[in-house]
Amino acid sequence: MICVACRTTPSREAPVPGPAQARTAAGRTVLLALVAVLAVGADVATKAWALSRLSGGRHVTTAGGLIRLRLVINHGAAFGLGAGYEPLLSVVAFAGVILLGTWAVRAAGRAEGVGAALAAAGAAGNLIDRLTRPPGVLHGGVVDWLHLSFYGPTFNLADVWIRGGLLIALAGWLWQRRRRP
Fold first, then answer.
1. Residue 13 domain-assigned (yes or no)
2. How far is Cα 126 from Cα 143, in angstroms, rounded to an integer?
3. Which residues belong to the active site?
4. What's the domain count of the chain?
5. In a domain, 4, yes or no
6. Residue 92 placed within a domain
7. 176 contact partners, CB below 8 Å, separation of at least 6
8. Which class for 57: exposed (0-12), middle (13-18), buried (19 or more C-beta within 10 A)?
9. 145, exposed or middle or buried, with CB in 10 Å at 0-12, 13-18, 19+?
10. Range of the domain at 128
11. Which end of the chain is less crowded, N or C, counting CB atoms within 10 A of the terminal residue's CB?
12. What's the CA gap between 53 and 21, in Å, rounded?
């Protein structure tokens, strides 16, 4: 008997992927790379905007005070924790890019992969700041510029990608493992 999906005879070994499966895997990798590149690009562009428009103590308040755009250079992690340990935070960010990117490529479903790719892009966006911003390589501050009245720290788009991407990836992972009746 021949397996219709993989065009092989059933055995205990995993089927060898055919050309259609290879094209699907390549298309998925391109999608994940596109998501990551667009997310990093959006983060870099918004940080450049914030540096040009919000420097010198300027800020913008919108939505009745709910959202405030203000420039903060953060040398730590969330809530400024770890300030002074920028090289360690850079190594952690680099590890995050690698681990989250690997998760994205190996994910079982599209949502899980896209979420992990977004989170990897967020880690990459903050790593770019740590490597390129003053005072120097591995000591640069992350450009934060979004502040919500009900949320303590000021953050950036990369932080949104990290948190949102992890939530999407986790939801996708759980969805793949749900019990079917």
1. no
2. 8
3. 144, 159
4. 1
5. no
6. yes
7. 108, 109, 112
8. exposed
9. buried
10. 28-176
11. C
12. 48
